[in-house]
Amino acid sequence: MIEEAALAAAEVTVSDLFEAQVTCHPQAIAIQNDGLTLTYAELRDQIDRLCSLLISHGVRRGARVAILSENRWEFLALLLANARLGSISVCMNWRQSVDELDHCARLVEPDAAFFSPRFAEHVPLLEAAGAEHVFELGPDLDALLDAVPLATPPERVRVEDGFQIIYTSGTTGKPKAALISHRATIARGMLSASDGVVPRGSTFLAWPPMFHMAGTETSLLTLFRGGKVIVIDGAKVDLLCDLIASEDNLAWVQLMPGMIDRVIDELKARGVKPKPMHMVGSMPDFLPRHFIAEATRFFNAPFRNTFGSSECGPVPVGGSFVPVGVVPDNLDKSQASLCRLRFVDEEGRDVAEGEPGELLVRGPTLFSGYWNAPEVNREVFADGWFHTGDVMVRTAEGKLRFVDRRKYLIKSGGENIYPSEIESVLMSSPRVQEAIVVRRRDAKWGEVPVAFVVPKDPLLTEAEAIDLCRGRIANYKLPRQVLFVSDAEIPRNVTGKPLRNELEARLPEPAA
User: Fold this and answer.
1) Beta bridge pairs of residue 204
2) Phi, psi for 114 (deg, rounded to 5)
3) What SS3 state is found at 350?
4) Domain ranges in the chain?
5) What pLDDT, in 10s, does the model give residues 408-419?
6) For a surface tag, which of 40, 43, 148, 291 has the fewest beta carbons within 10 Å of its beta carbon?
7) Cα 127 to Cα 234: distance, rounded to the nearest angstrom
8) Architecture category of domain 235-404 in CATH
9) Contact 500, 507 (CB under 8 A)
10) pLDDT tens digits, residue range 440-478?
C-alpha cells in the first residue's frame, strides 16, 4: 500500500512547473503583448494577485472560473492563477452564437467570470448561469489587484484536479465541455517536448484563440520551458509577418489551413526570407500536397504532420514531419509514445491490419470526460478506452492513416464512402487548391458525394475535376457534382478545418 505522503511527493501541477521557471530565471521575458513585456517574476506577481482576488471572493478548489476574452496576456495569467488555486478555467468560445454561449455557460455554472470590454454585452448571460463575481479586464481590475491582500490557497491542488475546460466544436450537436486535468496538460507538454515542438527558451507566436488547445497548450509549454510567448489578437497577417521577419528564436510557426498561404504571399511580397526554425504548419491533411512542398521550401523547414483533439491532445501522432520540398505520396503518421491504440469496427471488434476502424486510445494525455454529461462519458469511455470517433488505418509499415470522422459517412447504394478519400485524390492535383466533399440526398442511391472545389487553375471544368478521380477510386465514389467556390466561401472552425455540415446545407434540393 502506497503512503499518502509518497503520493503527494510524486505529484506536480501546472502551477509547480511554472514556479520552477520563475525560480530558475526570474528576469527572463515570459510574455510580450502589444508593447507590454512581463518577466517571469512580474508574471508570477500578477498570478499571485489574481489568485488572492479569487480567494477573497470565496472561490475555492474545484470552482469554475469563466474567461470570455480575446487573446491578451491576462488570459494566460488567469489560467495560471486558477491552476495555483485549484479552480478550473472555463475557456469561453467568443465565436459562438449567443444561444451557444448561453448553453455553454449554463452547462458548467461558473462561480466567477472575467471578461474583456469587447464582450461586455454577454455579462448578463454569465451572471444568469451562476457567476456571482464578474470582473472586467482592464484598469478597474488592475486597481483591485493593487489593493488585494496576498493570500495563500487553502487547499493543496492534486494532479487529477481539473485545470481547464475547453468546448468541443459542436459539429454534431451542441458543444460539449471537455475537462482537462493538470495530469493531462503536463503529459501533453511532455509529449510535445519530446517531439521537439518547443525547445527550451524558444519563442511562440500565440495567435490561435486561447479558448482552443492550439492557443493555450503551446503557450503553457513555452512557459514551462523558459521561453517567451508573444500574445497576438488573432490571425493578423501583417503582425505575424513582422514577427517572423524579426524574431530570432522561433521554433515553430503554427500556420493553419486557410491562412498559411496568405502569410507566405505577404512574406514573398516583402522579400522576407524566414529565419531558420525547427518546423512549420499543422494539419496537412487539409492542404493540397503540392502546396505542402512549396511551404516547406519557402520556410526551409519540415511540415508538422499533426493529428489530435481537445480530448486527446497530440495523441496518437508523435514526431511526424513532411520533409522539405517533398510532395508527399501520403500523410501517414507515426504513433506517439505515451499511448496505446486500438482500431475497431462498428461492433467493437478489432479490425485487421490495413482495414479502417474507429480509433480507440488509452494514455495520460486523455481528458477527464465531458462536464455534466454522464451518459456521453459512459459511451465514449466504454471498456476503459476513449472512443475518438475518428476512423483510421494502421498500415503494414506500422504507420497511421487518417480516413475520416466515423459520423460523417456517405452511404451510397449500401457502400460506405469516406469524403477524405475523394478529397485526397483531388488535392493531389496541382490544378486544385482545396476540395471538400459532402453528401447529397439521392432518390436512387440514398446519398451521393458532391465536391466543393477551390481551383488553382481557373480553367478547370467540372468534367475535368471528376476525371482527376476516375481510375484512382471506385466509380461509385466519383463526385456526382463539382461546385467551384473561392477560399473565402468555405466555412471553417477555429483551427481552419472546413465545416462539412454548413457546406452540405448550401446544396440545392435534388429534383424529385
Assistant:
1) 229
2) -125, 140
3) strand
4) 4-230, 235-404, 409-505
5) 778 787 677 878
6) 148
7) 27
8) 3-Layer(aba) Sandwich (3.40)
9) no
10) 988 777 789 999 999 999 999 999 999 999 988 878 889
Per-residue burial over 281-311, b = 16 or more CB atoms within 10 Å of its CB, e = otherwise = bbbbbbbbbbbbbebbebbebbbbbbbbbbb
- Whether the full predicted model's pTM is greater than 0.85, yes or no, is no
Who's near 335: CB < 8 A, 6+ residues apart? 316, 317, 318, 341, 398, 400
User: How far are the Cα atoms of 80, 150, 269, 426, 460 from residue 257, in angstroms, in the given order?
Assistant: 30, 45, 20, 16, 22
pLDDT digits (tens, 9 = 90+) for 91-145: 999 988 788 899 999 999 999 999 999 999 999 999 999 999 999 999 999 999 9
Residue 483's contacts (CB-CB under 8 Å, 6 or more residues apart) are 450, 451, 452, 453
**Helix locations, 249-373, DSSP H:** 260-270, 289-299
> What CATH number is given for 4-230 in this structure?
3.40.50.12780
Residues 6+ apart with CB under 8 A from 332: 395, 397, 399, 400, 401
HEC readout, 72-84: CHHHHHHHHHHHH
Residue 352 has phi, psi (to 5 degrees) of -75, 160
Place of cell 481528458: 367
Q: What is the mean pLDDT of the chain?
A: 90
Contact in structure between 304 and 280 (CB atoms under 8 Å): yes
Tens-digit pLDDT profile for residues 468-509: 999 888 788 899 999 999 988 998 876 677 888 889 888 876
Query: What integer pLDDT is reported at residue 512 of this predicted model?
Result: 44
391 - beta bridge partners?
A: 358, 404
d(CA 42, CA 26) in angstroms, rounded, equals 8
CB 137 within 8 A of CB 145: no
Annotate 461-473 with b (16+ C-beta within 10 A) or e (fewer): eeeebbebbeeeb
CATH class of the domain comprising 409-505: alpha beta
Q: How far apart are CA 302 and CA 6, in angstroms?
A: 43
Helices (H), 393-438: 419-427
Q: 409-505: same fold as 4-230?
A: no
Residues 37 and 31: beta-carbon distance below 8 Å: yes
